[in-house]
Amino acid sequence: MHAMQYEITLPADYDMGIIRDRVRAKGPLLDDFPGLGVKAYLIRERGEDSPVNQYAPFYLWSTPEGMNSFLWGPGFQGIVRDFGRPEVLHWTGLSFEHGPSSAALPRAATRSRSLIPPATAPADAVGAALEESRRRAKLPGAVVTALAVDPRHWELVHFTLWDDPAPGEPGERFEVLHVSRPEREELKEGRQW
User: Fold this and answer.
1) Residues β-bridged to residue 53
2) 54 CB contacts (<8 Å, ≥6 apart)?
């Protein structure tokens, strides 16, 4: 599993209805995309639990070929054409879990990113993060949760989809506009090694 996200921060007075319309029109195009486990079309709106307007889709890829096909294909090129080339954040998957609401349509997401301190052994940090990810996966309302790491910067990311506005879990909160999950069942459950 590979996790990926790009953030497009928009002007403070940007009409987020434009993004909502874009997702309504283009979101279903990835509903059967090969190699895609889950794509959550996420937004944050300024003044609603967020300091910015932002479009920030989050992906869980079941294959690297699927991720590459998207990045070099027409879908991502449309993002580049319309918004400029965003920095693509990328993490190696560590775990994936279905939650008690796994059959529900997600309405919210949380993402928390944290750096592993230089004095901390990476394996110890990952072990603690795995326990935290398992805890989140058992919470009422959790649809799926994933844990991943960027070993270049030693950054961990916890990502959870919720069936309702997210509970008081740590991290940034997003509204989910659409979810494509053509190969969700191909994402290996549990620890990824």
Assistant:
1) 10
2) 7, 8, 9, 10, 43, 44
Q: At what angle do helices 64-71 and 74-83 cross, to 10 degrees?
A: 40
Percentage of the chain with pLDDT > 90? 94
Domains and CATH numbers, the chain: 2-191 (3.30.70.100)
Rg (CA), the chain: 16
Task: Determine the pLDDT at residue 167.
Answer: 66
In 3-state terms, what secondary structure has residue 43?
strand
Per-residue pLDDT of 151-170, as tens digits, reads 999 999 999 999 987 567 88
Q: Which of 39, 190, 49 is nearest to 106 (CA)?
A: 39
Mean pLDDT of 24-31: 96
Q: Which of 172, 28, 22 is nearest to 109 (CA)?
A: 172
Please give the model's pTM, rounded to 2 decimal places.
0.95
Distance separating alpha carbons of residues 101 and 140, to the nearest angstrom: 7
